[in-house]
Structures are given as C-alpha cells and as structure tokens.
Amino acid sequence: MLIALSMKNKLGFEDGSIEKPEGTDSDVLSSWTRNNNVDIFWILNSVSKEISASIIYVESAHELWLDLKESFQLKYKPRIFQLKHELMSLAQDQNSVSIYFTKLKTTWEELSNYRPVCSCSKCTCGGVKNPSSYYQIECVMSFLIGLNDSYSQVRGQLLFMDPLPSTNKAFALISPEEDQRKITSQVGCTSDPVGSMTFTVKSYNAKRPGIPNSGTIAMVVIEMIQQWRLQRIEERGTFLYPLQLPWPYG
After folding, report:
1. Residues 166 and 141: beta-carbon distance below 8 Å
2. Peptide bond into 248 cis (omega under 30)
3. Per-domain boundaries in the chain
C-alpha cells in the first residue's frame, strides 16, 4: 500500500505533512479534498470488509491511517517471533539451493521491515550504516548455515572471503556448483552399465529367495554380459543398450 501511495506522491496525506488548508481558496480546498478522498478510497480497498466497515466514516486519510496503526500495529511482535522461528528452523534439506535461497530471503526481507531505521537523513557519523552491514552479515550466515553439508567446502571458501559477500553474491557462487553436480550425477548414472546391471540382478534375486545360489547366478550372468559385450565390440565396434537378459532375469 505504501509503495502505491508513494508512486502517486500521496504519502503526505497519511503522515499528516499535507494538512487541510485553512484559507478561503476554494480551488486549493477542492484539490486537497479530492486527493484525500482518493487516499481513503485506496486504503478502504486494501483492507478486509470487516475492517473497512469500522473506518468507513473517517473523513481524513491521516486519521484513518492513525486508526489502523493504533489498532493493528501491536500485533507485529507475534509475527516477528514467527519469522525468527522460521529462520532458525529453515534449512535446505531436500530442496534445491534456489528454492532454499528464495524461502530464506523472503522471510528475511519481511523481518527487516520490522527493524527500526533512522529516517531523519541527517546522520553523518556512519552509525546507520553499521547496523545495516551487520544485518547483511547475519543474512549471509543464515544462508550458509542452512546449506547441506555437501557444500561445506564452498561454504568454507566463502567464509574466508574478506569482505564477506552479500547473500545474492553467495547464492550466485553456490548455484553453479549445484548445476555442476547435477550434470556429473547424470553422467555417472549412464557411464557404468555393468554396475547398474549388477544392482538390477541382485535386486531381482533379493525378491526371489526361492532361487538357489542366487549370488552365484548373479556373478555368472555378469560374466556372461561382459563376454557378450567384448564379442559385440570385436564384431561391430559398437555396444548396444539396453541389455535384454533371459528369463528369469529379463
């Protein structure tokens, strides 16, 4: 709501900086009334019907804003508790780095809205910049802590960087590592057909305990596959997939 009002340059009606004119100039008063009513209309359409029914008769956008602030601002503490709890329990687990990063940043950005900030724009000692930098470090630490242990090496490299990269930069450095692992995993799944066949034969035998000497049968079948592959390579120079095993292994 504040973003929309700021785009229309009407925040002054909410904070009271644009007061109702006291003179007799009807054009100025008419302009103020029209803009004030537009603000009231926007606010009423931004809240639920139950809330709008209790504030529909307020004549000033500033009074309306103060009424809502007084009624609902005190509820931010439970929300802060909830966000803090989500951050403490947030981890990558089975999610991708991208999904985990999005969840963490969304929670962190909402939490940052509840932190007190200086709005006077007159500070020259740098005291406002220090807390902001500290919050950024906290966000990066939360992101790195929640990563899976498989990223411990790249996480250690990021922690030794000086200055510590931002959260977006840390994500940009870790994301290619995840993509590389996906490619390596896909290549590894198709590079060892005999090993894959060994697992298939053993799994098949495990489901059929009635077959005698299933371990010996598995080794014989694997040896036959290897001999068949060498023969096929000698004859045609190629190796065809997938292998079709005779019953009961086919």
Report:
1. no
2. yes
3. 2-74, 90-117+127-189, 192-236
